[in-house]
Amino acid sequence: MGLDELAISRRRCRVEDSAAHPSDISASHEELLQHPSNSDCDSLHIRRPLLLTVSSKNQIMKEKEDRSGRAAFVSRRTKIKCLCGIVAILILLGISFIAAAIGFYLKLQKDVEEVHETKAYLMGLVQQVNQAPELKWKAKYNPFGTRKKDHNFPFDKNSTAIREYLNRLSEFFNSEKMKQHLRELTEFPADSLPSEFDARRKWSYCSSLHNVPNQGGCGACYAVAAVGVASDRACIASNGTLQSMFSEEDVLGCCAVCGNCYGGDPLKALVYWVDEGLVTGGRDGCRPYSVDLSCGVPCSPAVYPLAEYRRKCYRQCQDIYFQYNYESDKHYGSMAYSMFPRTMSLDNKGSERVKLPTVIGYLNETSDEPLTDKEIRQIIMKELYLWGPMTMAFPVTEEFLHYSSGVFSPFPAANFSDRIVYWHVARLIGWGKYDGDNHYWLAVNSFGRHWGDDGVFRIDTQLLERFGLEYETALP
Description:
- By secondary structure, this protein is α+β, with helices and mostly antiparallel strands.
- The chain has a domain at 145-475: Cathepsin B, Chain A (Alpha-Beta Complex), CATH 3.90.70.10.
- The protein is built from 13 helices and 13 strands.
- Strand 3 (259-260) and strand 4 form a beta hairpin.
- Helix 7 packs across helix 8 (248-254).
- The radius of gyration is 46 Å and the shape is elongated.
């Protein structure tokens, strides 16, 4: 039966059914089975549910296919978006990498050019020094030399703690011990001083006096010099029975107000010796110096931040030093003081400064006439001759880092301040004269023995007298 015939037959059957059974339009499936008929209508009544079921299934399958198609489309679109995002990220990373590589290359080129320019400049400076007939010192090119540069190192000063130190300095200066010290200093005749003096010869039995320290990659010159002075004076006062070298690491790590790897104050370190005590140092003592020494002679200030990051306070001795514990290994001074008039800053900006009591300041105030440069120099010489070394602060210029021998003086004299790399502290151990009545100080530096004249240098006193610099010391 064709489709057209089937449709006509179905319409006819609906008409017949309506006429034969007006009250019951549809017959149940069971009645049809009980009254079989060969007519087309009967056949259609039996097959109609089957045809409707197949149609529904086809519709459901079609809907599923539509949904699957839409899901597949959405999935493909999501994958494409993810892929595009990944590609975009990779492109951005590639661009960033290329930009970083170009920036690194340009910086490297700039650094290389700067190194070559600095080397050429410093070698030219060394040549000028050695060719200047009026100079009394010689220079040797030092590959670890550097030019003036502002490193912007952070400083954090505790004004409360500093005021406590100031109070201690006032107590020291007003003590009976200081009064006795000032009497002995003034009563010693200046004409009894030798024209040349080296503390290493007078107190040759003190091993610390012959020590040339190396501060390494930390701006700890203040601690190294102050602890060296404490070690020297403790040995001298004991007539050589106390040969220990004290620990710079103890001051550097545990004295919160003294300073850090960016610099500090030797006077505060000496007050720390008096109030808190110092343990032994050196290679085999309680607290050896642990700062890296391989970075140069001297090391550049650029490496100081690493040492500052590692700086810690350990109140215990190294394992091999088992004979004493940290507290029982401490040695103490009796009083600390400054020789030359100076002030001390109370804040980070240096806007608030306080004048300190000093030996020369006191003697100048109690003198009938203001002290001359010669008289001031003689007071420092008497202090050194009677009790031993002291710290000495001075400005380090670019040419000083290439010092080899002789009596250092800045060259060229013009634009001296423009060449100051940093301020430095060394250990003053003697004096002498040259070219008639010209004077120099003999000092031990903290750059190791490979620098200068076996780690030692001589410097014209006019430089220090011109700047009115600092001399600090203490008594055991």
